[in-house]
Design goal:
heterodimer; A: 358 residues; mainly alpha; ABC transporter involved in vitamin B12 uptake, BtuC; two-stranded antiparallel ribbon; 16 helices; globular; B: 282 residues; alpha/beta; Rossmann fold; 2 domains; four-stranded antiparallel beta sheet; 10 helices; 10 strands
Chain lengths: 358, 282
């Protein structure tokens, strides 16, 4: 058990609260930096996907986990980013500029989609974003002169002012850098007035407003930031796959993204990463155990969907805080051994809750 | 604490802090507030009383701009002079120095007490989005400053023990205090308390009376409250406005209002009423 002796308020504000944080996140960073020399090319590509999904997950976490606005069409922002990147890169724009445009255009689209969020909440917002997702998918499929339609579009290797990132390792480092920057940005927002305004809107709009928080501004801001992150992830996704088509950004992708943050743990930055790891490793794990299962189960076409569904239901029922919530419990158990009590994390019932739709 | 937050007890000035004139609100066929006018002087504790459904909370929601009056207006002496409060957007009310609490506590439940108080500092934010994003020196210093202010309020209301607890796990009585603390964090000139003692036990209600008196005397904040507990009302209020059916019944000191025949009738019914209920004997 760690006891922190606090002597100034700065300790509560700094990101690394104690030496343990510095040590463990430093170690993680070191492992990630050495990864190209530690793992095979295939697993490095999977790790790159984890980072890309984590960026998109951070965006969705900001929107759903911290501002309380659920989006069922987040793959659309991913698609907008990916196609912007593809078109601009193929026109010969250097990578950073194309990435900036991808993020900017996604943010602009997010701003527009955020407008209904000012009026509708909960499941109705879900429906609005869901239909937005379908619209974008349809546009990507029909606007053939730009997007290449259902035949898809190839994208060139990223190129930074003459320095071509053509190896898997170089692209991995690029993704790692962007992920670290995105994570630091989100963490900074969350410890500052902007992030607190998001959390306030999530927990009680009426009292957020009476605290002077401009609901419309912060809701659209959250949508724009979230979409920008999804756009960046989409751009990297396009480069990683080198070929994109509209069906990669359909409702299944949106659901995957939502599944990712729910399983990772809604309302925690760690959750975005844990969810991304889950989302990428699960198909691999299923592929591995497939051969050992009886053929009627192992070779059944819907096995992956079934496993995802069961896992999601299990998490919603038994661990609403997701993988991160489970990790918190395990850590507390180890720290307090043998004094851990079963009910320690049980949320207490609110004594009185005003009637409002979440 | 007192040194930082306006130490001089504010004398009632001739110019009222808030003046409501001929307020009426109609929800469909219901006239929730009918032609209500009152002035709140600087530095006083002004209480709205009345039976359930009298329109007290509606008046509160008019002041905090959750509702817009059908007719009538509210003027408020803000930091930059007199403003027409009924024309301000709802999120600007806090910036003018009006903070409120809610009848059914509306705290940010999945956050710690400290976090809630820091959200109360929102109107005093100095940083822009990009400064928050990169957490510049300005942002860090602003955070330190906000924390110091929040700590002053924590000390004032004795919340040290609960500083890092999640609101969702706190007992009801403490939540009431946290909500008041959050309102104080905005450094208001006018504090609106919607039933501060509802759901509190006798001891907690007594504490609440002390705190309201302290807020008025030490911090020089004007308090406007809705309250049912007449002991608390007569202990702390300077003036009382009694309402019934959306209309003003009586206004004056607690003693005057309590002895007003109209008020007694509204709460207890008149003698005629009672006789009409009496069983007819043959």
């Amino acid at each position: 058990m760690r006891f922190i002796f606090k002597t100034d308020y700065g300790q509560d504000i700094r990101l690394a609260k104690h030496g343990g944080h510095l040590f463990w996140y430093g170690a993680l960073m070191l492992v990630l930096l050495l990864a190209p020399w530690l793992v095979q090319e295939y697993w490095l590509a999977q790790l790159t996907f984890v980072l890309i999904y984590a960026i998109a997950g951070l965006g969705l976490m900001l929107l759903a986990g911290f501002t309380g606005l659920f989006s069922l069409g987040h793959a659309a922002f991913l698609g907008v980013g990916a196609y912007t990147q593809a078109v601009l890169t193929n026109m010969g724009l250097p990578f950073p500029l194309a990435l900036g445009c991808a993020a900017g255009l996604s943010a602009a689209v997010g701003l527009v989609v955020g407008l209904p969020a000012l009026r509708v909440k909960g499941i109705y917002l879900g429906i609005a974003t869901l239909s937005f997702g379908f619209i974008v998918e349809e546009v990507l499929a029909r606007w053939e002169s730009v997007t290449g339609g259902n035949a898809g579009i190839h994208i060139k290797k990223p190129d930074m002012f003459g320095w071509a990132l053509d190896s898997g390792e170089a692209f991995y480092f690029l993704c790692l850098l962007i992920t670290v920057l995105a994570t630091l940005g989100i963490l900074n927002l969350l410890r500052s007035p902007t992030g607190r305004a998001f959390v306030a809107i999530r927990d009680s709009e009426i009292s957020a407003q009476s605290m002077g928080i401009h609901l419309a501004y912060y809701k659209t801001l959250s949508f724009a930031l979230s979409a920008a992150l999804a756009g960046i992830a989409g751009a990297l996704y396009a480069h990683q796959l080198q070929f994109i088509s509209p069906d990669q950004f359909n409702i299944l992708q949106s659901i995957d993204l939502l599944l990712m943050i729910v399983i990772g743990g809604v309302g925690s930055v760690h959750g975005a990463f844990l969810g991304a790891i889950f989302l990428i490793t699960m198909p691999q794990a299923i592929a591995m155990v497939k051969d050992y299962l009886p053929p009627t189960i192992g070779q059944a076409p819907g096995l992956q969907g079934l496993v995802y569904g069961v896992v999601l239901v299990a998490f919603v029922l038994f661990e609403p805080l997701g993988l991160y919530g489970r990790w918190l419990k395990v850590r507390t158990y180890l720290q307090m051994f043998p004094f851990y009590r079963k009910g320690m994390f049980k949320r207490q019932k609110s004594f009185q809750k005003s009637e409002r739709l979440k | 604490m007192s040194a930082a937050m306006n130490p001089t007890p504010v004398q009632p000035l001739p110019e009222p802090l808030l003046s409501a004139r001929q307020l009426s609100v109609r929800f469909g066929g219901v006239l929730a507030v009918n032609n209500v006018s009152f002035d709140v002087q600087q530095g006083e504790v002004f209480t709205l009383i009345g039976p359930n459904g009298a329109g007290k909370t509606t008046v509160f929601n008019l002041i905090s701009r959750i509702y817009t009056p059908t007719t009538g207006e509210i003027d408020y002496l803000g930091p930059k002079g007199l403003v027409r409060l009924t024309e301000q957007p709802p999120q600007d009310v806090a910036g003018l120095g009006i903070a409120r609490t809610f009848q059914n506590i509306e705290l940010f439940e999945h956050a710690t007490v400290l976090h809630n108080l820091l959200i109360g500092r929102h109107t005093h934010r100095k940083t822009r989005l990009w400064q928050d994003l990169f957490f510049t020196k300005t942002a860090f210093d602003a955070e330190l400053k906000a924390r110091e202010k929040a700590e002053e309020v924590i000390e004032f209301l004795d919340l040290q023990h609960h500083r890092d607890s999640m609101v969702a796990g706190l007992p009801y009585g403490v939540r009431k205090v946290v909500e008041m603390a959050r309102a104080l964090c905005t450094e208001p000139k006018l504090l609106l308390l919607d039933e501060p003692s509802s759901g509190l036990n006798v001891e907690e209600t007594e504490d609440m009376a002390f705190w309201i008196a302290d807020i008025k005397n030490e911090l020089g904040i004007t308090v406007l409250m809705v309250e049912h507990d007449m002991t608390l009302v007569s202990k702390v209020s300077d003036r009382v406005l009694a309402m019934n059916q959306g209309e003003v019944l009586a206004m004056g000191t607690p003693r005057e209002v309590q002895s007003d025949p109209g008020v007694i009738e509204a709460y207890l019914g008149s003698v005629d009423d009672v006789s009409s209920l009496r069983r007819q004997t043959a």
